[in-house]
DNA sequence: GAAGAAATGTAATAATATTACATTGTATTC
DNA sequence: GAATACAATGTAATATTATTACATTTCTTC
């Protein structure tokens, strides 16, 4: 029963298979982990892969469901442990307002594996669209610089930050004004 | 039996009684609501009063418990509805990372009732101490200005923001170095 | 004082997250 | 290559936070 035909021998259960593109990102992530002396196990890889397949933030229990289809029946701690690991190693972000998770953009556009975690800390800022649920990670260091400055003045030792902006993205805003050609601001849909 | 010596007559159940100081803040809050055409009911006043009595962020279910001692047996929606109201009117903030609530500082130091909600939007930035759990609201407009600028560039319509910095506050940092034999003041009750 | 709107009461349940402990897998040392 | 120690995972139960749906009450306005 234990004969899994896996040359590299790493998983008791076969991992999900993802698109070549995502597999590539997963390989990058694995390299980052190795570099940090951390182990990218099959479980963690699967969770990260699933997060990467989503265009939008994913909740822990969504991931749990998706893991189940693989023939396994994991429980919440399985997912939360993987998420904790991925968070710790800067591979994903948690969107506080949504209790959901997205990949770090640096992973998506990965080429510079070196100052990855540094960059992650610097750019953990998000625009959340209430309409289409898309979350965009902002590449801007000004906000963090300001926060650092403030904290320095207050002698506050900064460990982590979250900056989240909720509103309507350009695309959805355009959609709306297209739907209502004449009147724009009068309707309040909530 | 129904003779509550309350001129304005608003509560079916007697509201909590708070310290003069907090009552004063509650009066301010009530004034702000009136100004906005909103009703500060006994229920909402009680919840806000309870939040004001806490030195630290309070969870919804903590508030629920505290409301119960008054002889009532409210259910979660009661508290959440009050919280929603208080949030909408800029009287409290929700700390996303803690799923907890704190009064808006403008309420604590209230004298300028006029541009209250404006100011609130501008300063919804918090320093969260992991050690003593104290949350400090930062009075700084730079961060929001930066965010506005970014959003303008992206054509993102900004509706609300949260900026949270987690770390160790000056006081706790000092406490820690005081643990190591040297100098510094070390007395403090939570 | 009746109609309609706002607020509250109530029961049930959904969604998110953690604890505690047993088991398995992996790396290392002898 | 067995013994060990530690990291990772499995599993069951439960804690915490939040919402839905609908009945009832209260308030405002006419």
TrEMBL record, chains A, B:
Binding site for Zn(2+): 129, 132, 169, 172
Keyword Protein transport attached: no
Top-level taxon in the UniProt lineage: Bacteria
Keyword terms: DNA-binding, Metal-binding, Repressor, Transcription, Transcription regulation, Zinc
Textual note on the cofactor: Binds 1 zinc ion per subunit.
Alphabetized InterPro entries for the sequence: FUR, Fur_C, WH-like_DNA-bd_sf, WH_DNA-bd_sf
UniProt keyword Coiled coil, yes or no: no
Any one GO molecular function term: zinc ion binding
One GO CC term on file: cytosol
Cofactor(s) this protein cannot do without: Zn(2+)
An annotated GO BP: regulation of secondary metabolite biosynthetic process
Family membership noted in the UniProt record: Belongs to the Fur family.
Annotated PANTHER family: ZINC UPTAKE REGULATION PROTEIN
Protein name: Transcriptional repressor
Source species of the chain: Acetobacter pomorum
